[in-house]
Amino acid sequence: MLDGIDRALIHALHIDGRASFTQLAGVLAVSPQTVSRRYERLRDDAALRVVGLPDPQLTGQEQWLLRLTAGPETALDLAHALVRRPDTSWVYLTGGGTEIVAVLETPLGMAHGHSLLLRELPPSVGLTAVSAHHLLHTYLGWRTPWRMSANALTARQQRMLGAAAFAGYDGMPPPARRRPVHLSPADHALMEALRRDGRAGLGELASGTGWSPATVSRRLDQLRACGAIFFDIEIDPALLGGSVRVLVWMAVAPAHLDEVATTLAGHDELAFVAHTTGPTNLVAHALCRDTTALYHYLTHGLGSVKAIRTLETAPVLRTLKAVGTLR
C-alpha cells in the first residue's frame, strides 16, 4: 500500500523527474535518506520508473495508434514482436487476448509508416486484421499525468519544484515560439539513455554521447527549456486505484469534438484522451478501481456526454511495454 509520502514523491517526480533527493526532501519535508529509501522501494515494489521522452512534434516524429488482430495461438508472439521494436510504445494485449494495441512513431511526413511496420513483422505472427489511426492531437496524457497519480502535493509544494512545471507539468514555451529542434547523433544517444533511465547520472549519460558531463548538463537544460524533451513516470496503476484498465474508442461529430475531448480530459477516470483519424475519432484510456466503478463511469460519466455517438470498449489484459526503452 502507498502512504502519503509515497504519493507525494510520485507526484513530485511527475513535475520534475530529475529533481535531486535533496530537492525532493525539501518539498516533502522529510530527510534525503527517506526519499532515497522510498524511491528504491517504489522501484522494486511498484515498478516505478522515471523516463525522459522526446516531444514528437518538435523532434520530427509523428505518432500512429495501431490495432492489430491475430489468432489466439499467435497474438502474444505478435505483441512481443512489437515490444522488441525501438519505435513502439504502449503495447497492450486487449479484448479477448487476440487484439494488440500499440503506439508507433515514424519520421514526420512518412504517411504510410504503419505499412512499413507491417512489412517488417515476421510472417509467422498470423496477422488477420489491422487498422491505423494517426494521433492528431493529445488532450490528456504524455506531458500531462493521470490526475490520480498527481494529486498529493499542495500548490505551494508544486511551486517549490518550479513555476513552469507548476503551470501544467509542461516547460514548453508558448505555441508561437515553438520551433522544431535539430538533433545530432549525440542528442539521439542522450535521449535514448534517458528513455532507459530518466534519472541516470551525468557521467552515465556522457558515456554514451562522447560529451563531457558538463556538456551533457548544458545540452539537457537546453532540450528541456525548448520542450524537446520532457520527463514522465511509469508505475503500476493498480496501486493508485486503477486496477481495471479499458481503452475506449468513440465517434464524435467534428463540430463537437474539441468540446467533448476537453470535457473528458477533466475526468479523474481517464489517463489519456486523444483525437485520431478513422471512424472512431476519439480514444481514451480509462483506469477504474473495479468493474463496478467502470460501469458507473461508462453509464454516468461518458453516458452523460450526449455528443458521443458511438462507444466501444476494449479491456486491457496486459501491458507489455510502456513509454520507456526495454530494460
Automatic annotation (TrEMBL):
Q: Which residue spans traverse the membrane?
A: none
Residue span, HTH asnC-type domain: 2-62
Keyword annotations from UniProtKB, A to Z: DNA-binding, Transcription, Transcription regulation
Name the InterPro entries for this protein.
AsnC-type_HTH_dom, Dimeric_a/b-barrel, Tscrpt_reg_AsnC-like, Tscrpt_reg_AsnC/Lrp_C, WH-like_DNA-bd_sf, WH_DNA-bd_sf
Q: Does the keyword Transcription regulation apply?
A: yes
Q: Does the keyword Ubl conjugation apply?
A: no
Superkingdom assignment: Bacteria
- The name this protein carries in UniProt is Lrp/AsnC family transcriptional regulator
Query: Which species does this protein come from?
Result: Streptomyces pyxinicus
